[in-house]
Amino acid sequence: MLFANRKDAGRKLAAALADYCEKSPVIVALPRGGVIVAAEIASALDAPLDLLFVQKIGVPFQPELAMGAIVDGAEPTIVRNESVIRHAGIREKEFSAICASEQAEIERRRRCYLGDRGNIPLGARVVIVVDDGIATGSTVRAAIKAIRRQEPKELVLAVPVAPIETLEELDSDVDALICLETPPVFYAVGHFFNEFPQVSDAEVIAVLATLPQDGSPDPEPISQKE
């Protein structure tokens, strides 16, 4: 196994991201598994942690196969995998119905995890997007697309493990890409962790309670006139 668990992966990623400590980054996690990894990074870099809610749009008869993804926002971002949609014979009405269902789950998670807490504005900030691993890249691609709309100063993608071909597809979408391991044979993210349990809502809420919520960068010192 490459990683003991998500916390171990987060600590190793934090070491790889150490140079970003002085850039006042915002760490953006993809719930739920990405929150555990991102919390270690946020703690090490003394950075605020925020969440971006992304739901995979799975094929009805094979839910693990992504035919797209939807990202929370005032105008939800939807990324479609047209080849999967065509191959699976999914009609537009069916696709829209699944989108609506996943949007409802996003709303539930947002209320559960954040309550009345607002998201951190990402414009002109260094943003580090974190997940616990990437397989096809559909959810991460949707997240990146949504964050780009806010015009961050720099957009970094940081994950413990991913297939090299997926990283090559994502590389042009970000300003920097940090991935610790790219196994030549890739079945599923969980195969590379000794412990990879499902993350509960309660775990996410507990993690958020231990980390700073203030997303404002430290003000620059004002020089005194002589």
From TrEMBL:
It comes from the Bacteria. Residues 6-181 form the Phosphoribosyltransferase domain. CDD domains: PRTases_typeI. GO terms for molecular function: glycosyltransferase activity. Pfam families: Pribosyltran. Keywords: Glycosyltransferase, Transferase. This is Putative phosphoribosyltransferase.
